[in-house]
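Supplementary Note 3. Input sequence used for the single-chain structure prediction.
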Amino acid sequence: MAKLRSSVYGWKSVWMDLADEAKGEFVEEPSVARVRIPMNPWTVTFEMHSKGKEHSRILLPYDSKGDFEFEIYNRNWIADAQKKFGLQDIIVGYEDFDRDFIIKGNDENKVKKLFAAESLREMIQLQKAVRLSVVKNGALKAFGKVPAGVHILVFEEDEALNSFDRLVSLLELMRASMSQLCELGVATNKDPNFQI
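The predicted structure, written as discrete structure tokens, is reproduced below.
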């Protein structure tokens, strides 16, 4: 009989199911809960911050080969207003995708190659909301003592992720993103020896 996974019991129940199914671990502290899932050679960490407004993050530290960064998020009226005042986004050449998302990065050619992967674009478009980026350099301070050369792929959402199917789809999005970053030659398949 298939296991019933429901958010009726809250996000914590769904996250514990994810940890169980993905052979990860569920750890709870006073203001944050984490699910750490091995994804050889990396470890993906789902974080739920419950102090104040609930906020979810998915974090995947990786060994970087360079300084590549990107950010993609849903187009909205704020981003459209920012564009009128000079916000530059990268057009990757796929009409629906370019219409629906703001994409930024420090290497336009690599950003275009990253999102040339149809499977990655489809995974992103299936999400109800997207805020995916690479965190590096000074922004890493928030994660403690991060080894040199390690960057973090981050997905963020301003609410609780409480659907098991959505958590699984986001895990696959992180896997596909890392596969593309490795294929681009900006990330390695080496264990970064760092987890959150």
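The first strand starts at residue 25 and ends at 28. The chain has six helices and eight strands.
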